[in-house]
Amino acid sequence: MVRPALVEAVAGLHPWVAEMADYAFGWCEVGGAPAAAPGGKGVRQALAVLGAEAAGAPGRAGVPAAVAVELVHTFSLLHDDIMDGDTHRRRRPAVWQAYGTGPAVLAGDALFALAVQTLATRPGGSAAVRVLTVALGDLVRGQADDLLFADRPWTGPERVRPREYRAMAEHKTGALLGGAAALGAVLGGAAPGTAAALDRAGRHLGVAFQIVDDVLGIWGDPRVTGKPVHGDLRERKKTYPVLVALGAPGGDRLAALLRSGDDPEQAAALIERAGGRTAALAEARRQVTAVETALADLPLAPRAAGELRSLLGFLVRREV
After folding, report:
1. CA 44/CA 71 separation, integer angstroms
2. What is the pLDDT of residues 248-264, one digit of tens each?
3. Closest-CA residue to 107 (of 203, 192, 16, 180)
């Protein structure tokens, strides 16, 4: 339902920028030859369509929201890869590696502008643009915190606390998930309270999704995740299981290992022994309960509500 509208929207960009966008979506190789590279999961697209259906509207009413959110998500990935120095995305060279840093920034800017244009030209577009800009503001806030976390010490009073990490994840990951569901609901004619509750549900979902990703980033099967085992530890990322373990007895020994980058296997064992993995999965389940609470009293169309819960299960039951 969404793919043809997304293709049509991207085709309206400058041809060179459109090629970079097509590459980012996995639709072409460098130079424009068709490709069938792995794309994203389409989670935000699904949330936008389900948001419209949950409001009692046809799923097609949420398609512009799905397109806009997918454009914004891809824009954020293009810029994230540059900021984080990540050279690959979905098993291919990142856009900035394939085309250059400046062109990748330009492509990201173009996708952001196209997202706003996609919503602004629709009936009810002004309300939808407001929802999108709030989500974008929070996404930037979360990205800023994430970048600053990297420079903070592993131990001591200035170390990153798990509660700070949850707030960062809500902004960086949850804001766009919540925004997707809320945007679909807005374009589907939902009452403001329904859209706001879907937004809250999506934010809790984002925290759960990020924390499960953190667990997979340490203990996940590389054949499933596409990342090397203990990959997040090799990159010395301050993820949720790590932050919990650093606050437990023996945290100083773990911090020394993480500073040196030596022996990620031993670091993973220390994190598990300190309860980092167990605490992370427990927090993910707590966030799932918060999603259910946000959805419980909403007047949602039954089929759409059931599919929203199925999607929730898919996202967070990837435990290892």
Report:
1. 10
2. 998 999 999 999 888 99
3. 16
